[in-house]
Amino acid sequence: MTTALITGASSGLGAEYARQLAQRGADLVLVARDRDALNEVAASLKDTYAVRVEVLVADLLVPRQLARVAARIGDRERPVEMLVNNAGFGLPLAFAENDIEDEGRHLTLHVEVPMRLTHAALGAMLERGHGRILNIASVAGFIPRSTYGACKGWLISFSRWANGAYRGRGVTVTAVCPGFTHTNFHERMGLRPGHEGVSAGMWLNAADVVAESLVDAARGKAVSVPSLRYKALVALTRVVPATLAARIGAQGR
């Protein structure tokens, strides 16, 4: 039976990954800071899908707590066969006005944390000769979009390299790059749904994003861009002038 560990699993895309993987029969290790929210998600999944669900409460920005999660991922006695690096948060695009300590935490959570957890997963997965790692990036990684785009661009590049390096040994690494998706991600930034300056046609459903990305990961793709509209946008960013790409990146908040 497959066990998947998901960070940021108490809501949003993380909770949707948990639901869809449980529906497929996977046991789960759910990681987030909010114990009550995690327990609520875990209870619902156990009742609905009769899978085993382990709750691991951790703030991934605290080194000792991050180390506990890394140790769980690398536990050879309780193997984790899929890792979903999903934890994250957003900041306003106005870098010069943002608190630099917030920017530092943002960089750590989006770059250093998935790097460390991927490293922890690879050791055990390569020994077994199989495993999947999904790094939740963003379409923002393909366009100039303040430090969020820069962090996600790093994660895309890292995932591409890792997939090429380790796929032949049975371990795939996929960067999942959704566009604007209906979750509580934007609400946590203090933004009201429908007031981000993004047209309704550019919004995706979390269930569709997760389903398409799991198919792409199963196929061993290094990069998954859910939906045709965002595939087209990514293709467009390769040919448009840098100034236009910057204007595209300024859409939304």
Would you write up a description of this structure?
Helix 1 runs parallel beside helix 2 (35-49) and helix 4 (100-128) packs parallel to helix 5 (146-166). This protein starts with a strand and ends with a helix. Residues 186-195 have low confidence and may be disordered. It is built from eight helices and nine strands. 47% of the residues lie in helices and 15% in strands. It has a single domain, classed as Rossmann fold (3-Layer(aba) Sandwich), CATH 3.40.50. It has 253 residues and is α/β, with parallel strands linked by helices. It is globular and about 50 Å long. The chain has a seven-stranded parallel sheet, with helices on both faces. It has a two-stranded parallel sheet with strand order 7-8.
CATH topology: Rossmann fold
Specify the structural class: alpha/beta
User: Strand order of the main beta sheet, please?
Assistant: 3-2-1-4-5-6-9
- Low-pLDDT parts are 186-195
Distance between the termini: 41 Å
Characterize the main sheet.
7 strands, parallel
H/E element order: EHEHEHEHEHEEEHEHH
Summarize the model shown.
The protein has 253 residues and is α/β, with parallel strands linked by helices.
Please outline the helices and strands.
Blueprint: E1 3-7, H1 12-23, E2 27-32, H2 35-49, E3 53-57, H3 63-73, E4 82-85, H4 100-128, E5 131-136, H5 146-166, E6 171-176, E7 181-182, E8 204-205, H6 206-218, E9 223-224, H7 228-237, H8 242-249
Parallel strand pairs: 1-2, 1-4, 2-3, 4-5, 5-6, 6-9, 7-8
Helix pairs in contact: 1-2, 1-6, 3-4, 4-5
